[in-house]
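Look over what follows to help learners.
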Amino acid sequence: MATEATTTKFQNSDFRPVPQPPDFHPELTVSPHDGLHFWQFMVAGSIAGCVEHMAMFPVDTVKTHMQALGSCPIKSVGVGHALRSILKSEGLPGLYRGIGAMGLGAGPAHAVYFSVYEVCKKYFSGGNPNNSAAHAVSGVFATVASDAVFTPMDMVKQRLQLGNSTAYRGVLDCIKKVLKKEGFGAFYASYRTTVLMNAPFTAVHFATYEAAKRGLIEISPESASDERVIVHATAGALAGASAAVVTTPLDVVKTQLQCQGVCGCDRFKSTSIRDVIKTIVQKDGYKGLMRGWIPRMLFHAPAAAICWSTYEAAKTLFQDLNGSTENGTVT
């Protein structure tokens, strides 16, 4: 009875309950498709790809030299030795030979890469933005499409990185000489190897990136919105480094196929991956399949961090512009 009396006492109509704020659990929400148009994904991807590859190009040059076999000047697998050899023979400009080809290939290829990824992610995820399998499969579709665009320019880029000014005077000169001496097929000699390398690379990369991003957000959800760049960069670096180490052997095979005949490097009778691997193992042992793994990891970790943070920043810019347009603030 006492309890009922007490309850009745505090049910006075003059007292009104004060609404309590709900528990605050800030988090960085991830929409399945981010509300962007197809062309906006392409532009964001193109910007990200150009920034990434231009910033990390010298490291890529060192890696290419380390992976090339034959009578090329650089035979040591040491990063420091390879770098000193390039600087001694060609100076600082030697680290940037072929950057024009990279610029011509990276923009269009990454536009295809990210736009295909986003479209496939929307299709395969079934509305679940945390579906790792969908991210991996979407990444494979993206790399098959983008490699078809990038492989020819990547071949030109690597030949320019290895050759001196007497071998090729520039991008157009390299294209003309390759077409004349080896035919159009030379531009796609490594396409199969590139896809076989980049398919697992991209699957590991995207799945690791999305999982790492989600994990970092869960660690500190209250500051996730303020630290978007740090989250994307850290997740991208982890994904890039992991995928790079796993796929180094196929990257060595790809470099061999793209650079055959340049600077005394071996020529192969066929583009068979097995034949190239046998040649590498015979000349350099199994360790030859891991040539350049250190610069490859040093390239892909910061490159992925730069790429993802740039890409997400560009997407955010487009989202803001789209929101402003819907609100009628932009004509």
